[in-house]
Design goal:
about 725 residues, alpha/beta, GIY-YIG endonuclease, Rossmann fold, 6 domains, 7-stranded parallel sheet, 22 helices, 30 strands, globular, binds adenosine-5'-diphosphate, binds zinc ion
């Protein structure tokens, strides 16, 4: 471009439009480079944006508005902008989402930010020599820090005020510093031969891209492998990112990482307070954070020198963002590792079909941990027919529970339904309590004496009579965790029953505290939802059971068998021989009203990978992911006609781009929160063709007048229908 041609700045803004916006550079300043954070006028608002590029002005620049302020020059790294650009094209969402994905909340506001509270303080030389005279508060700080740096938390716990810390900092007597690592690293166990093999494969891949699938049941020692691989990365002076599911980010894991590696782990997820998130972001960017543990949003953190990514429980659905930019953090982590030329380890007891397929295609290398570290033999499997039984607990199961408890074992029962009963029904006329806003039954909660919709959150009091026929005989059908807990405490009054679900475990540490008690305690019964199925190794559990699998057997979601298999194998993996001479042998029980169902017989072969291989063949035959790529166009509105009108127009546009489009068909849940929902299935011969067609189609769909009358989005690689 010639020197005289004026330059315009392309700015990404977090607005629901696919393009960037052109602005003139501020008059008196140098051109803000790519990655700068800027404040610009947008309509009547003032927004924070990120500079994505510069271009010679083609139109008369006088029509353009000018950037108001440059907040930080080149704040966002180019490699992250490139990753985001890839994601925004692949997942067909607006590029402007980079503002919310790449910046912590504190940096998305035009007013600039208050520097976060320092993590820790240390004494300066002048502080050491200072004479505090008659100022006990100051003296306390100085004497506390004599032995070395302390975290701000531990200082305030001693009753020291933040204002005192600030005064002393201003005096130059103390200074902020990184949070001190607690203890020196502790030594891990000697690895078994499979773990050693896995570790050496990962270690030899440091410094180049390689994706590994680490497959081993809970307790097989996957975390040990992550930790020792992380040690090798830290020794090279590089950083480690560990992504975990929302439910897996436990204080226990953080403590274990910190004590084994001897560093303060930095935690990043959306519930962390704003100041903490900003600090974590800065520390990762500066290289001060050596180990970052986070949920899916951490995949977009900046790193000074990232050396390894670990994705634990890689099959977990929470890695997929379900609103806004619908990215998959596991898959993006792989893309990021590839861009950065570093290895990535995906760990799971029950890998996703996507990852198994990637192994079969030689894209990922598989590492297997088949021995459980405890050396327990695999549990015996049984299917129990629960037809004609009440309360969700068959007499055969009750007999087995009794056996295990009396022989010193602990029992773990999985039921994916909280509340008392999933259905409240009138015996006289068949009326059922349904949510008025969703196509779903309301769940009866006995403690609150109300009905709750688990999909939209609406609640109403439990009626005393049938609203339809006035009959007083309303019966609760089926059993949620509350009802199971009640029934179990009647059956086993001498043993503790612990319920684990969102209603029972409200405090952040409740679950941890309970797990510690269970680990140290004697025979007991744990009954609970998803929370219970994951992660934690409970060595005294000898009987594990999945109480009701029937809904999954007949689900219309093609992923339901895979999810069922994952739950069943996660739960079955929890049962082992109790480490006592006469401890009961491990046993796993599955209750069903359809014991003859074909899916159950292939599930019960006892090997998850065999089951998964069968499912992959079925997906192949049906032309479904991961063998074929899939995207959905979902739309919803208070009435159906505008939804259908938009989707029909969208279908024509996408077909025009060479894509195969089926639908519109109703969503699995046709009505939710008062919105009627339909979707299109979009496929193409190859993934690049699908992505190409969608990214071209996106702006076209956005321009449709019918698009303004509905809420809609594109979901590439959807995890639920
Ligand atoms: P996973 O992550 O697969 O669930 P962990 O790494 O948490 O497994 O290991 C389960 C338990 O076994 C932990 O208490 C861990 O300290 C222990 N463990 C792991 N590997 C070994 C080993 N090689 N020798 C002895 N104990 C081990
Ligand atoms: Zn009735
Ligand atoms: Zn509802």
């Amino acid at each position: 471009m010639s020197q005289t041609e004026p330059l315009v700045v392309q700015v990404a803004l977090d607005v629901p439009l696919p393009q960037t916006f052109d602005y003139l550079p501020p008059d008196d300043e140098a051109l803000p480079p790519v990655g700068s954070r800027v404040v610009v006028p947008f309509g009547r608002r003032t927004l924070v944006g990120i500079v994505l590029g510069h271009e010679a002005a083609s139109t008369t620049p006088s029509q353009l508005k000018t950037i108001e302020r440059v907040l930080d020059r080149a704040l966002v790294d180019e490699d992250l902008l490139a990753l985001h650009q890839w994601a925004s094209r692949y997942y067909a969402y607006p590029i402007g989402a980079c503002v919310s994905l790449l910046l912590p909340p504190a940096l998305r506001r035009p007013e600039g930010f208050r520097a976060p509270r320092p993590q820790a303080y240390q004494l300066t030389d002048s502080g050491r020599a200072a004479d505090v005279g008659r100022a006990p508060a100051r003296a306390k700080v100085l004497s506390s820090l004599k032995e070395g740096a302390l975290s701000t938390e531990s200082l305030t716990e001693q009753g020291i005020k933040t204002s005192t810390l600030k005064t002393l900092t201003d005096l130059g007597w103390i200074a902020p510093c990184p949070r001190p690592a607690g203890e020196p690293p502790t030594k891990g166990p000697v690895l078994n031969s499979e773990q050693s093999h896995a570790l050496s494969e990962i270690s030899s891949a440091l410094g180049r891209y390689q994706a590994f699938l680490l497959n081993g049941v809970t307790g097989s020692g996957k975390t040990e492998v992550y930790l020792q691989a992380a040690q090798a990365v830290l020794a090279r002076g590089q950083q480690v990112l560990m992504l975990v599911p929302e439910i897996g980010l436990s204080p226990q894991l953080i403590r274990r990482v910190e004590s084994r590696l001897g560093v303060a782990a930095v935690v990043y997820h959306s519930d962390v307070a704003e100041g903490e998130r900003l600090r974590a972001w800065q520390m990762a960017k500066d290289g001060e954070a050596t180990v970052v543990i986070g949920t899916r949003s951490a995949v977009f953190l900046p790193f000074a020198s990232l050396g390894l990514v670990v994705v634990d429980e890689e099959h977990d659905g929470s890695f997929k963002q379900m609103d806004g930019p619908r990215y998959h953090a596991r898959d993006l982590a792989v893309v990021r590792a590839k861009h950065l030329n570093i290895p990535i380890v995906l760990g799971s007891a029950t890998p996703s079909l996507e990852s198994i397929n990637n192994v079969n295609q030689d894209r990922y290398q598989t590492l297997v941990l088949s021995e459980q570290a405890s050396q327990a033999p695999p549990p015996r499997w049984r299917v129990i027919d629960q037809r004609g039984e009440v309360d969700g607990l068959s007499s055969a199961l009750l007999e087995r529970i009794d056996h295990h408890l009396t022989h010193g074992g602990q029992v773990l029962l999985y039921r994916n339904r909280r509340g008392f009963a999933p259905v409240l029904m009138c015996q006289a006329c068949g009326w059922q309590a349904d949510c008025t806003r969703c196509s779903a039954h309301m769940t009866l909660h006995q403690t609150q004496q109300n009905l709750q919709c688990h999909h939209c959150g609406s609640q109403r009091p439990k009626p005393n009579r049938c609203p339809s026929c006035e009959d007083p005989n309303l019966i609760a059908l089926g059993a949620g965790t509350q009802r199971l807990e009640e029934a179990l405490s009647q059956q086993f009054p001498d043993h503790p029953i612990y319920r684990v679900d969102r209603d029972a475990m409200t405090g952040r540490d409740d679950f941890e505290t309970l797990l510690d008690r269970v680990k140290q305690g004697g025979p007991c019964i744990l009954v609970g939802t998803q929370m219970l199925a994951k992660g934690h190794h409970l060595p005294k559990v000898s009987l594990a059971a999945v109480l009701d699998v029937d809904a999954s057997l007949f689900s219309g979601d093609f992923r339901a068998p895979e999810h069922l298999g994952q739950i069943v194998y996660q739960v079955a993996g929890r049962a082992g021989r109790v480490a006592m001479d006469d401890g009961p042998a491990g046993e796993f029980i599955l209750q069903t009203r359809h014991p003859e169902h074909g899916l159950l017989s292939s599930l019960c072969t006892g090997r998850y990978l065999d089951f998964a291989t069968e499912l992959l063949a079925e997906r192949q035959a049906a032309g479904l992911p991961p063998m074929q790529s899939l995207a959905l166009v979902r739309a919803e509105a208070h009435q159906t006609p505008p939804v259908l009108a938009f989707l029909e127009e969208a279908q024509a546009r996408l077909r025009h781009r060479g894509l195969t489009v089926l639908g519109p068909i109703p969503s699995m849940m046709p009505k939710r929160s008062g919105y009627w929902r339909h979707q299109l299935w979009v496929q193409a011969a190859t993934r690049p063709e699908l992505i190409q067609g969608l990214s071209e189609g996106l702006s076209e769909l956005q321009a449709l007048p019918s698009a303004k009358r509905v809420r809609w989005h594109i979901d590439v690689d959807p995890v639920s229908l």
